Amino acid sequence: MRRRCVVVLAMLMLSLPLASAAPAVVLEDHGQLEAPGAITAIDVRPGGAAVLLVGEDGYAHRIDGAQPTRRDLDVQLGTGRTADFHDVDWHPGGATALLVGASGMLMRYEGDTHAISSVDGSALLAGRDLIGVEWRPGADVAYIAARDGALWRYAAGSGPVLIDDGLSTTDITSLTCHRAANICVVTTSDDGLGLIGRDHELVWLSGTSTTTWVASSCADSTLNECTAYGMGLTTVVIQLNTETASASTVGKVRPLVPMNAEMTGASVAAGGSSLVHLSPMGLLRHDPISDEIYDHLNAEQLVAFDPVIAGRAIAGVWEDSVGTGWLLTADGDLIGMTPDMTEAQAGVFETLGGIVVAIAVIGTIVGLVFMNSPKLQAWYLRRRRRRQA
After folding, report:
1. How far apart, in whole angstroms, are the C-alpha atoms of residue 133 and residue 87?
2. Could you tell me if 62 and 88 are in contact, meaning their C-beta atoms sit under 8 angstroms apart?
């Protein structure tokens, strides 16, 4: 009897409902921003009050971060350029931002006047296709990357200075700095992963050159680590030595569960997590503390929402809280995202239902044990007679 009860209880435990790893998302179409070409990059101002957008044909635009649907709060920024911008990054202080692009464009945005002007020394970059810019958290230096692999450090007063006497890689794909430590990750298509240390030295991480890396994220400022994302749905965790970059290590390169998609970029999300961009359009949420990746928004849901939008690329994503935020496509589609409370409530009812079932099953087990045990029945009769006496 004891063995039979254990088996039944084990089956009961297996039948309990499992909590969803991440809430389903409800999407809402908020129209399309007008731009002369594709929007190539976005960056959220520290604190979330504003979002800068850059794109083709010299496009630069500012929208409100908390109320991005309000077109009356938009600021169209005049750059005086017709070449394509490729990246933008706010200064950690939030007062200015740097914009980079084709033909060596390096420009500064002034938040109080909304003016955009060339940066002193930018002539040194003439003819280079600049694809990335990132301020390190110390706010003293920004790093600039060219598509051909050249890297520069930039500081006000000194202008751009080539790193490592012109050491180049074949193709830089992204540039990301840690949110608290002065160390940055460089991803490449052929030469693996590199780190820029606090003294601007560039070191390469062994064992990473067999993967084509497309993006990285250092979303949780409390962790001395970043995660790189590569083709073939592969990821690797970089354990950072913030004092000596060359002493940093990488974990095992791991493939995700196979799906018909590729990772194309990553955005810092709420709660120290990252939202990884997919093509065809979708989002995966990466929690660096648990090192787990969840399906946040899949292609099937997007096709059901709008098949035209589902076929476009993601320019960027930002969140107000986990599950609540905004997605902007390269074509300017602004999509609101909120957790599906209907599904969450259904999950609560399923859990309550599971508890009720569990109580009923336990009661049934107790009843079966009682009916099959003469000793228990005799004990119960004696106890009942004593109470009636």
Report:
1. 6
2. no
